[in-house]
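Wait, mind explaining this?

_____
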Amino acid sequence: MNWKILVPFGAFIVCSLIWGSTFLVISIGNDTVPPMWAATIRLVLASLILSVLVVLTRQKFPRGEALRAALWYGFFEFGVNFSLLYWGEQRVASGIAALLFATIPLSAMLFARFFGLEQLNFMKLLSAVVALLGVAIIFSGELSAGVPLLPFVAVVCAATSASLATVLLKRGPAQSALASNALGTAIGALVCLIASVLLGEPRTIPQWWNQWFPILYLTLAGSVIAFVLFAWLVNRWDASTVSFVSVIVPVVAITLGASIRQEHIATLSFAGATLVLIAVAVVLWNERRKTFEQTQKSAK
């Protein structure tokens, strides 16, 4: 048995399962702890853990242009994104939220074109249009099922903010992923805390295990373990292959939401979900093919 081949596949599966479950756990956590306050605690803990890892691995925190890129990344990735996602998931099914986040590779592609980092080709543009159509169909299906407009829009904006954050980080100088996320989660915690204050949420330290479990799971599994595994996997597989986790995560999330929370997803939403997943899969597969061809050319 070739463990060198099996271990990366195992890491890929674990990442998919963890990130696929985080949307459900956020929904469960909203039952016992106010959403913005829960996000604040999670990000504070994640920032502390990641900072310790930075020190232990003797990496450097960003400075100058890298620091500015990390600050903007933290603001949009953890501050705006988490605030909108946690708030929106009070009414939006966790599976639908995960599906909307599957569009991140496509929206990031559009932001990258806007900032002059990448070029758009016909396939990318067509896939973006198909995904947008899928989101519109999901939107129609969820509204017909009684989901309020604002929470749905909040989750869409959360996914858009996350994709913008990725591009803003990429625009800056190369830097330690651990360090940028340690700083980013700290900035995100501040933004979520401000949102919690503005919304007038009660901010008390959780007392019971059912309050702490979602926060600790999201912190340790979602923000640390899966992140470290993903970073490890990127160093062994090409990035376009690893990014297929974006297609697996919503499938896991929809399955868990239906089986554990009995979340009902409108029939029309499933049609939209199919379009979104096909669009994302086509773009990722095309990028993987181009990466493989470039690798073959450079090897000659």
In short: The radius of gyration is 19 Å. DSSP finds twelve helices and no strands in the chain. Residues 151 and 180 are 29 Å apart (CA to CA). The chain has a mean pLDDT of 87.
